[in-house]
Design brief:
Largest interface: A-B, 68 and 68 residues
Oligomer: heterotrimer
Low-confidence stretches of chain C: 1-23
Mean pLDDT of chain A: 87
Shape of chain C: globular
Distance between the termini of chain A: 63 Å
Number of helices of chain A: 22
Helix content of chain C: 40-55%
Strand content of chain C: 15-25%
Number of strands of chain A: 2
Chains: A mainly alpha, B mainly alpha, C alpha/beta
């Protein structure tokens, strides 16, 4: 079956009324759970899974997938309006989205997030269709050495996204990596820093950490301030519309973000949270005026939002073509397929062309629907800012609690959020960057397990990082990233 | 001269935390070697790095004028307290009473007097929560305490 | 007089309450039954639990609520079940690990699999296959063992220290008299990727994890750990009795239904009977098999025996691996 035949075949599958309705329902529900802080696609898919026993396999998968990418749209809303990430992957959108909202440009920020999400998804679909075979091979050609070298590079590249003194930024990255060490060590089975708490064996809950560091810290700091400042001035319709300059600034970041996200999405074990962080770091690196970042740079929204949506699409490649789920949500998708008697794997395309092409086309339809749904909602979201904060924050607290609870039904995690929120607020007051802590937490365990695994695989031979061409490339790039500021400093001193 | 007390304090805390982590890891987990790292390798090395960074933050801060920052104590206590109430009560009291108590506690620290708006808010948020999570998402949480 | 009447009314109320609880086994279940599953929705233990929960609810006329409490390899769900007490409405469907090896691997486990848990019945078992990449030089177990003659020459991936995949491989290595090189991963997906990428040589895994790649010609299955050939992969030879391995060589993962110790024995018996009826249904058996699981109807004593036997067997393997480290 050629690509064109496949697409037209997929169109007939995706346009079946039952499939279409489930797709739209999934996209709608995804947006809703994405907007609610803490509750992400994971929880919604978990709750929907039992329903999928009773509907056709195409409808089931299309619906679950729509929840997944729909949540990526919704996640940005609370990030921009309230500095409260709806999902961990949209945490980075707070960095420039929230300052924009404070400057009265919430509408433009939301517009940028929606359009970048849409463009990232659509281009992601193009990448998926054009490069499915190549992306599938990518997954197996990346070993532990490549992952370790690549993640170290990512960490080094992204360590600069915080403001202020380098020692303070670095301390947050290191603290994040150390927090990532909590739980059962993959390589030895040793339970580290769990202090007898079985609840900590799988580590600290990422959602709890993201909600505590961003959402709650912001709530605490904002209660009195919001009352003093009063609601923001009324936003005219004109201010909702991006300027020509805004649009021009969004184009290149969307392109870069899509490529970056498409790459990381296809790699098992990485995925959309890492994509959005690295997308942000990349934009800051290539920007002519990096100092604009953190103060409402629209590129800081466009890049990461395109990246995480693109990653959400290409994440289906290893899941469908290898039967290898890249993250817990993809593992759920795989489970849903298996329930319907479909075993994804290398034979998937030939054995179940309906499913594969139907899904691909439904991605396009779903994303179009999400754009049409979300653009008119921008006005509504912005008007939410006029609700006095004292009416909002108690509800936010309840939603955060339920969101964290929904991840694995654990009240222990809610108590954790309380503690993390207090610490997060104290860090925020002293101007430490929570984004860097989260980055260290996400990348740290990947670096540690892969570094140690690579050395196990090579039987302790460090040459493995130089011998393998891809790994070597990352090592050289990392060295260059580290050397660049030093060289700049030297030149300044000499010149 | 007012020193940059926040940086000094946090630097100190991070330095001590780093040392504690490194010490605990060194005495409890196998360090291994560079070629065959044990579970203690990362925590020990990074703990020491954190300690060094903490010192780098704290020491210059002592000799520097800091910006005055406001720490919202009552709000911190109220928000953290309301979260603890939610976490500790949910399984025992069910969603509805827990949500109501959480909202009341959280709104107690809002800088606006009056009891009526707090009660209205409590009822509204509790109802919304019930509709969204029990009615809509059908989450497996009991709405009320388990009958005895 | 009113006081007397009031206390009489109270007494009769209490008596009534007493009678209903004494009649519990007959009237049971009078409210929804909760089943705690140690893995997230969509995982195979969850799918098995839901496969059983639906006909169970139908047979008993009360909803069966599947509660996913994932974490610590299934241990959290058992703790949560025990935390609700033996109220006759809290049960668990879990895998073998938390009931057999967990006390050896997890400090502060908080329960004793024998003293604190009443077995209800085994649900299904799954063997593991020994899988290698397609370009692995050997095509059978004997060749694999020959290739592994030099200590640590052959590496294998597992889903973690103390996981079924790890312990099975060590059991195999011990029986075959070879030393394999262990590289832990977090999921079968990672192990498979690593084998396909040529990073590691082999791994013991669920048949359904290897099957798609075998069909695509990128992997080979050299043997299976069940006592008899497995219906999902009938061509894969059993390891027992081959290449010098003992005739009783067997290693299986299983899923079982459990209750807190102290649950009314009549209720446990009723549940076991319903469970067996469900497991004898050919449609249920087929759906289990499609996921790589063999239905295993049996008594609660069978499960108790399984727990004791496996605890002893895996305990021995853990002793040996810990001594080797």
């Amino acid at each position: 079956m050629t690509t064109l035949e496949g697409l037209s075949h997929g169109l007939t599958v995706a346009l079946q009324p039952s499939v279409l309705i489930y797709s739209l329902f999934g996209a709608l529900l995804g947006t809703l759970v994405g907007v609610l802080p803490g509750i992400g696609a994971m929880a919604a898919i978990t709750l929907l899974l039992p329903i999928t026993y009773y509907i056709s396999s195409e409808a089931a998968l299309v619906m679950l997938a729509a929840v997944y990418y729909g949540a990526q749209y919704g996640g940005a809303v609370a990030s921009i309006l309230l500095r409260l990430p709806g999902t961990p992957q949209s945490a980075v959108t707070t960095l420039d989205g929230y300052p924009m909202a404070q400057q009265g440009r919430a509408g433009v920020a939301l517009f940028a997030a929606m359009v970048s999400s849409f463009a990232g998804s659509m281009l992601g679909i193009v990448i998926l269709v054009a490069l499915a075979g190549w992306l599938g091979r990518l997954a197996t050609s990346f070993g532990a050495a490549e992952y370790a070298a690549m993640m170290v590079m990512g960490l080094v590249a992204a360590s600069t996204i915080g403001e202020g003194r380098p020692a303070k930024s670095l301390s947050m990255v290191v603290l994040g990596v150390l927090l990532g060490c909590v739980g059962t060590d993959v390589n030895s089975g040793v339970q580290r820093f769990t202090f007898g708490q079985v609840q900590l064996l799988d580590g600290i809950n990422l959602v709890a950490l993201a909600m505590g560091l961003f959402g709650l810290a912001e709530v605490i700091g904002n209660i009195r301030k919001a009352e003093r400042d009063g609601p923001p001035p009324h936003v005219s319709l004109r201010q909702l519309v991006p300027t020509r300059d805004d649009l021009r600034r969004m184009v290149a970041p969307i392109g870069r973000g899509t490529l970056l996200g498409g790459f990381f999405g296809a790699l098992p074990g990485t995925g959309s949270t890492i994509s959005s962080f690295l997308g942000y770091a990349l934009e800051r690196r290539v920007a002519r005026q990096p100092e604009r970042f953190g103060n409402g740079a629209i590129e800081g929204i466009a890049g990461p939002e395109a990246a995480n949506n693109s990653a959400a699409i290409t994440a289906f490649v290893p899941t469908l073509t290898l039967g290898i789920p890249g993250d817990p949500i993809m593992a759920l998708m795989l489970g849903a397929l298996v329930i319907h008697g479909i075993q994804p794997g290398p034979m998937m395309l030939e054995a179940h062309p309906d499913m594969f092409w139907g899904l691909v086309v439904s991605f396009g339809i779903g994303n179009l629907f999400l754009l049409v749904l979300n653009l008119p909602l921008i006005g509504l979201w912005v008007s939410m800012l006029r609700i006095p904060f004292r009416w909002l924050y108690p509800a936010i607290i309840v939603f955060v609690c339920l969101g964290v609870y929904s991840v694995r039904g654990s009240t222990f995690d809610i108590v954790m959020v309380a503690g993390i929120g207090a610490i997060g607020y104290a860090l925020a007051v002293a101007a430490f960057s929570p984004a860097l802590l989260l980055l260290g937490f996400v990348l740290g365990p990947l670096i540690e397990t892969n570094l140690r695994r690579a050395l196990l695989v090579s039987r302790g031979d460090l040459v493995t990082f130089v011998e393998r061409p891809v790994a070597c490339g990352f090592v050289i790039a990392t060295a260059a990233l580290l050397a660049l500021p030093l060289l700049k400093g030297l030149r300044r001193r000499n010149g | 001269m007012r020193r940059d007390l926040y940086d000094a304090a946090w630097g100190g805390v991070l330095a001590l935390l780093g040392l504690a982590v490194a010490g605990w890891a060194a005495s409890n987990y196998d360090f291994g070697s560079l070629r065959r790292m044990g579970p203690g390798f990362f925590p020990v090395v990074l703990g020491l790095v954190l300690a060094a960074l903490g010192a780098l933050i704290a020491v210059p801060a002592l000799a520097r004028r800091g910006t005055q920052r406001h720490f919202a104590w009552p709000e911190t206590v109220g928000v953290v307290g309301s979260l603890l109430i939610f976490g500790l009560l949910l399984n025992r009291a069910g969603l509805v009473p827990t949500t109501a108590l959480t909202v009341l506690t959280a709104s107690a620290v809002a800088p606006r007097p009056g009891i009526i708006w707090r009660l209205v808010l409590t009822v509204a948020v509790t109802a919304l929560t019930w509709v969204l999570f029990i009615g809509g998402l059908d989450m497996p949480i009991p709405a009320w305490p388990r009958s005895l | 007089m009113t006081d007397l009447r009031r206390s009489l009314a109270l007494a009769s109320l209490l008596a009534g309450a007493f009678v209903t609880s004494a009649a519990g086994a007959q009237d049971w279940p009078a409210e929804p039954v909760h089943v705690f599953v140690g893995f997230p929705a969509g995982s195979s233990p969850d799918t098995i639990a839901r496969l059983v929960a639906e006909p169970l609810a139908e047979a008993m006329g009360q909803p069966v609520v599947v509660e996913n409490k994932p974490g610590a390899g299934g241990v959290i769900a058992i703790q949560q079940m025990l935390a609700r007490g033996n109220d006759d409405y809290s049960f668990g469907i879990n895998i073998n690990g938390p009931l057999t090896t967990a006390p050896r691997l997890i400090a502060d486990l908080g329960y004793d699999p024998v003293a604190d848990i009443a077995p209800v019945g085994l649900i299904a078992t799954s063997p593991l296959v020994l899988a290698v990449g397609a370009d692995f030089p050997a095509d059978d177990v004997q060749g694999f063992i020959d290739a592994a003659a030099e200590p640590e020459a052959i590496s294998y991936g597992s889903v973690g220290e103390g996981s079924g995949a790890h312990l099975t491989a060590e059991l195999f290595a011990d029986a075959a008299g070879v030393q394999l090189f262990h590289i832990p991963f977090q999921s079968y997906a990672e192990v498979t990727t690593s084998i396909l990428g040529g990073e590691i040589d082999s791994g013991f895994m669920a048949p359904s994890a290897a099957l798609p790649h075998v069909e695509a010609g990128t992997m080979k299955m050299l043997g299976i750990t069940s006592a008899e050939p497995f219906a999902q992969v009938p061509d894969v030879p059993v390891l027992a009795g081959q290449a010098g391995l003992p005739d009783d060589f067997r290693a299986e993962l299983w899923n079982a239904m459990i209750a807190p110790a102290g649950t009314d024995p009549a209720i446990v018996e009723r549940l076991n009977a319903e469970l067996n009826k469900i497991l004898k249904n050919p449609e249920v058996q087929d759906r289990l098999l499609a996921m790589g699981w063999q239905a295993q109807p049996g008594t609660s004593e069978d499960l108790a025996e399984r727990i004791t036997d496996d605890t002893a067997m895996w305990g021995g393997v853990i002793d040996r691996t810990q001594a080797a480290n």
